[in-house]
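Lab manual, section 2.4: Encoding a predicted structure.

Procedure: take the sequence of the chain (207 residues), apply the prediction step described in section 2.3, and record the output as structure tokens. A sample record is shown.
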Amino acid sequence: MDINLLSSGPLLRPADKEKAGLHQSAETRSPEPAVVEMGIDDDKPWLSEPNLENVESMEVYLSIKKIDGAVALEVAKSLYRDFRERLSKINPELASKNFGFTVDASGSFRILDPHNNLTQSEKVWLTEQLGELRGFKENLMAHMEASTLLAKHDKTGFLSRYQLDNGEMDHLIDYSAVLTSEDMERAFNEQIRYRAMRKTPFITETV
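Recorded output:
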């Protein structure tokens, strides 16, 4: 497919998009985000979340959050893999270019172009396509939510060393690099280690 088509309008007509299957990913249900309520004891954060009233300990709560994050990331990986495979068929030239993406707390995507090899039309098109993948942004946002909660409440976990907030994740994480990695947790943690601001070091780290 001629990449110049991007500069003159949408890459695919609606009928062509349906045929290519870029919008046919299975709809998924991501974990519901935490609801912040005033007066809830930080020692029992599950009391502010729906369907977690019966959780009895922080250990159980943290296990649930870890599972929520891992499942959301696996679903997002599957959706993104399908997207890249379809992209390679309908536009192999664009698929071969090195690009990433990030997503903010509102679910808006931003294309990352580290080598400046994308046109503005390509960036716009990729942004639109990722935004239209059903269940994709919801699962990425669920992963971000779980990660920020683990950073806040898992006092001995890796993420607890860093100041994480949903509103800043789009400045920290290239999710394309995470989702295409063989070890997604490690890829995510490496980006956090490289870009996120650390909290005061643990006493064991200063001895």
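Check your result against the sample. Strands lie at 100-103, 109-112.
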